[in-house]
Every structure is written in C-alpha cells, then in structure tokens.
Input
Amino acid sequence: MKVAFVKKGAGRYAVEVGRERYPDLWCGSIGYDDRLPHDLLHFVAEAEYGLDGGIFADLATGGNARLFLPLDDEHEVDMQLVTKLWRKQRIRRTRLPDGRRSEELARQLYQGWRAQTLEPRLQRKLDDIAARWEALQVGTSLTLEWPRPEGRRRHPPLKRRRPATARR
Output
C-alpha cells in the first residue's frame, strides 16, 4: 500500500491511498503543519511501533478507517463504492483498537521531534520526512510505503483471544 501526502495549498493537504487488493481512497487533511502534518506522524507512529489496529493498518486490510472515501480512475469520489463501504460499516463496525495509542504516539513524536529528544534513528527519519515535505510544491506529494503487506491482520496474543466454541 502506498500513501501519498499531497500538498493542496496554503494550510491544506490530502492523503491518497493506493492499494493493490482494494479500492484507492482519499481523505482531506486533519491537522496541518508546515513542517510535519499530523497524518504523516500517524503513519510513522503506526509503522514504527507496529500498530496493527490503527488507521493505516485498517486501510491496509481493506477498511476505510471511518474517514476515507474511495476514488475512481479519474480521482473523483466513487459514490457506488461509498455506499458499499458504509453498508459494510453498518454490518461490521470498524474498530480501531490502537486509534488512541496512535494519536498519543503522534503527539509524542511531534513534541520529541521539535525538542530534538527522540532516539537518533527516529529523529533522523522525521528530519528527513520533514525536509521532503517542506520542499514540496503545491500539487506535488510525498509518498510512503506501508511496511506490512496488504490484507495482513495480526491475531491478538493467545491469552487475549476468545476461546473457541465447540461445534456439535
């Protein structure tokens, strides 16, 4: 899955998600920052800390994280797919068990990055992403690849799984 953070104008960006196994999606900006947009921090937090119950992991497993809309081939919203996704949402509620953790990690990453107190590898990574983001012109994008395969959904540890029910 490829995630493009697209600079749309002063104080605006969009997130476009290209998936091989599922329809492509997009979402408008949540929190803009000239140096490191909020959604970029979510992506890094979920990728680096292995959060398989966050926004981007849900997108990688075919969901829409309750935020994203499907795009057709001309990058217009595909209303038939929107209807299908929302119908699926009513049947199987989207749960983001790592959503709050992702939000907290994104906040901590931003504060640590600004204060230069992150561990060196993560500090360099965010410095690089921030430099690439700042260099973008309006209408261009920064594309990152999700580090885990599409469709992969981790199972909870054995002690947290519900016991199997016996079938008769």
